[in-house]
Amino acid sequence: MSKTTRFLSALGRGYVVLLLAFLYLPIFIMGLMSFNASPFYQLPMKWSTTWYEALSQDDRLVGAALNSLQIAIITTVIASILGTAASLAFFRYNFKGKKVLQTLLLPPIAIPWLITGTAMLVFFYGVGIGRGLHAILLGHVALALPYVIIVVNARLQTFAPELEEAARSLGASQWQITRRITLPYIAPGVIAGGLFAFAVSFDQFVVSYFLATPGQTTLPVEIYAAIRKGFTPEINAVSTIIIVISMALMLFTARFYKFGGNG
Amino acid sequence: MASVEVKNISRSFGSFKALDNVSMYFEDGGFYALLGPSGSGKTTLLRMIAGFDYPDTGHIEMNGESVERVPLEKRNIGMVFQNYALFPNLSVFENVAFGLDVRGVAREETRNRVRKALELVQLGKLEDRKPHQLSGGQRQRVALARAIVINPRVLLLDEPLGALDKALRLDMQVELKRIQRETGITTVFVTHDQEEALTMADRIGLLKDGKLVEEGRPEEIYNRPKSLFAATFLGDANIFEGMSNERGITLASGETIAVAGEKPASGQTGCCAVRPERIRIVSGAQQELENVVEGRVERRLFAGNSTTLFVNHKERQIRVGVPNIGSLVPADGETVTLTWAAESTVPLARD
Ligand SMILES: Nc1ncnc2c1ncn2[C@@H]1O[C@H](COP(=O)(O)OP(=O)(O)O)[C@@H](O)[C@H]1O
Ligand SMILES: [Mg+2]
Which of A9, B109, B242, B316 is deepest in the core (most CB within 10 A)? Predict the structure, then answer.
């Protein structure tokens, strides 16, 4: 390596470290404070698990967290299945208006959730679906679907159509082809799409806020309500737990399916 | 195994005619090549026989039974794709076993048949590898084993050797021919390489612009081409054009080229072809044949097993193939006498 290359390489490394610090520092401090006995962030820190104990007694927060988890998991499953099926339909068949339909998948991602949420509230109210956990679930699936379709579609772009043709010529039925050839190949895409779906649902505040009823709500909505009443470090505790779980999930899949990074 | 017959098949994509009234018979157990330049409709025809696509008009029969309405997965066809299309997530064994698994063949029988097929293509030891761990030639063999293990009625191959380098290609030509003879499966393979078609096939169907131009045994189609296209596409040919008469074809220069066989009616324009290797260089007392011309060697092209001489004769260039048998090849600028038989001069239909 020449001197300039070495310098530039060090510079690049410094830049990436700074960037990651910017991303992780607030999260790290929050995690730290969740173990601080003082509710007013007093330093020096006094280690304590008070807030975790308090959290375990807080039925509202725990209940909302379980709701969130449940909705996110169901959303992930439903959106992954429906989205993958839609991607396969786009991949396999040439039907009238395919281009238009495919293009129409993108705008919903760009529409502000505030507006989508309002529209859903009005629509669900109008057709009798109303509000509640079921409405939230329905809304989340709708929000997550485009992400799944786009990610799975990207994976399918690298799939040679001859593979399905070869399987057919060997006598396989459509279902056998899908199960044994196509799905194993696009699995990383489906997993990635599922992660997006999980994130969209688990993170979702705006749409959930519109569709929730007072007793039945999700964690982000509950946290928001709690903060308005007055901030307690319990929030730090619950957030830290969520962060640990989501990061573990992400890192596991990244390792398993070799997303991002190269090595 | 089965005979296949396509009858008056046409297929258009929009206003473009990819196949135009093609009829061809593939005898049970025969080895056929579909030969033609890129875009001539070879793949389209192959895909119709397989059942990936359906003709606009015309019929396809196997063993005399119409199969147009039989879907691909029920036709029992072995297909080898140009890029092999091996299933990337399955091992060599699982790839070959796939066609038997989906048919519900018992495990024990599947194992035996897969092993036999892998032995046939000489890949016995690699059954646990994944496709990405194989070389091009090995992938080709797996694709072949996967296609024949199901005992297909017909084996279809689309440019099977196109992706291999030359030495490997020659090996695989011999292999493919051996496997076809051992299994006796009716085989149709697509190629744009005339040498490959000549070496491997029992019969060649020559396609051009979606039409079947000629069909016949390699020797027939090479030695006695009927069309200008066949004469020039299958190897090199000197083409002479002129007025037809009872002796042969009279060129604009006034010379007459003697032609054997059926020629165009006297007084009409016609043309004929002579392969370069049919022309001999004579000197002194050596016997001359029906056609004799003199010319000057303009340049020479050495190709190992032969040398091509470019001989100038009255503003015309005649190519002569001199086999490399150790004799002296005339030098540039030398004047030579060329001779060839009327038998070697083939009358052609214009196209
Ligand atoms: N599905 C299709 N849609 C439109 N045109 C096609 C299609 N398939 C083939 N063609 C056209 O038909 C012609 C013959 O194609 P093909 O049979 O693949 O030729 P070959 O295999 O001899 O190179 C080509 O010009 C090709 O562009
Ligand atoms: Mg082709």
Answer: B242
Contacts of B150 in chain A (CB under 8 A): 170-171
CB contact under 8 A, A181 and B87: yes
Indicate whether this complex's ipTM tops 0.90.
Answer: no
Structure confidence at residue B351 as a pLDDT band (50, 70, 90)? low
The CATH number of A59-256 is 1.10.3720.10
Task: Give the residue, A256 or B335, on which the prediction is more confident.
Answer: B335
CA distance B48 to chain A (A): 12
Q: Decide if B89 and A166 are in contact by the 8 Å CB cutoff.
A: no
User: A176 to chain B: which residues are within 8 Å by CB?
Assistant: 102
Q: Confidence band (pLDDT; 50, 70, 90) for A230?
A: confident
Residue A257: per-residue pLDDT: 63
Compute the mean pLDDT over every residue in chain B, rounded to the nearest whole number: 91
A interface residues, B as partner, C-beta within 8 Å: 160, 162-163, 165-173, 176, 180-181, 184-185
Determine the residue of chain A that is closest to B150 in CA distance. A170
pTM across the whole model: 0.80
Chain B stretch 32-51, residues whose beta carbon is closer than 8 A to a beta carbon of chain A: 50-51
Strand order in the sheet with B248-250: B256-258, B248-250, B238-244, B269-274, B346-348
Closest partner CB to B73 (pick from A163, A168, A184): A168
Residue B138 distance to chain A (closest CA, Å)? 18
* Distance between Cα B210 and ligand 1 center (Å): 9
Rounded mean pLDDT of A23-37? 84
**Once rounded to an integer, what is the mean pLDDT over residues B277-285?**
86
Is pLDDT of B298 > 60? yes
